[in-house]
Amino acid sequence: MATGKKTQVGEGLPDPLMFSPDSQFLILSRKLKDEVQIYNIANNKNTVVKRTSFDEVIAMSTDGMAQVVFSKGAKLRALKTPYDTRTGKDIVTMEKVNLQRLGSGNPAMVFSPDGRTLLIKDEQLNIMLWDVATGKSRTLPGTAGLWFVFSPDNSLLLAECGIQGKIESSTAVKNPSVQLFDVASGKSIATLKIESSDVVFSPDSKQIAASYLFNISLWDAKTGKLIRSFDKTAKPTSSPKFTPDGKILISNGSDRTFGFWNVATGKQIGSLPREANLLAISPDGTTLATGARDGRVLLWNMPVFKDTK
Amino acid sequence: MPRPILILVSRVFACLYLLASGLLFAAEPKLRDTFSGHKTGPFLGFFSPDGKLLVTRSNTVLL
Description:
The structure holds 2 protein chains of 2 kinds. Chain A is mainly β. Chain A has strands at 8-11, 17-19, 25-30, 35-40, 45-50, 58-60, 66-71, 75-80, 89-94, 108-111, 117-121, 127-131, 137-140, 143-150, 156-167, 170-182, 188-192, 199-201, 207-212, 215-220, 226-229, 237-242, 248-253, 257-262, 267-273, 279-281, 287-291, 297-301. Chain B is 30% helix and 27% strand. The longest helix of chain B has 19 residues, at 3-21. The radius of gyration of chain B is 22 Å and the shape is elongated. Strand 1 of chain A pairs antiparallel with strand 4 (60-62) of chain B, so a sheet runs across the interface.
């Protein structure tokens, strides 16, 4: 990155798009093309893993290895796809799972960050946690809503839940609320009064930040209690992100700025002009990348805020 | 009170408010480098786990 040398590795809108943990590969999933592109960064070579049926859908774990294939007959297979092969190997197969399909035609599946647990929202809006290694699953209490977020340490799950109802003959969730679950026990820890899906765990998994319109709130991830509300913003704000040390929160303001917030005080401590929605924070927290309207990518030195040292 | 003095007093109070809220001397990010290649503003991007690479997505995916 320091050289500024760039390589075009793909076109369109791959989802998900991720690095392998060792930074050696870039993995681009193309659901519409039924393929996964694995780009070897060192030798600039692509491997394309083709899927066999348009019905199959893929959820990928963040290690870029495990894919889940929903095949005909409601059979769910998890494949382990080594970077250097086109075939992949089965990890485990789970039968008789009727997945809830979302508007895009994809069922709701989310991997935990360590790739060991797969969350599945089935047709009856059950939230099932599937152990990828053993194929065993358990069902959490409540009816699944539209979104799920695992904590970075894999121990907690934040999920929109509600009461099962019907919308135009389809099963749907009513009166949604946000539930905090302990993943190991499957028990609900707390109900959080959060009104949007704009939530993020702190890097240490101890806090949750949520933004909704003019409000940013900070919650204790152990108890589900509100720690503090940040100063109200002048314009609606969204997409909060913690810096790697968890001391600063960066929000995306509709006034075309990124706002910097001191997590300990809830006060705004800085801002940065925003032309495009891109905001990336380097793993060491020293560099920010933002996008410009003309297509440029801007690299910034992360400022040192005296009150957040 | 004459109008110029009113303006002066209001500006002093405005500066005091900014000082109190910490925004006047807030540290600002410093632009270090720019990369080009996308035709329109990239809306997604992230660093590699080792921090050496940056991937960005607009109409194309650039590394």
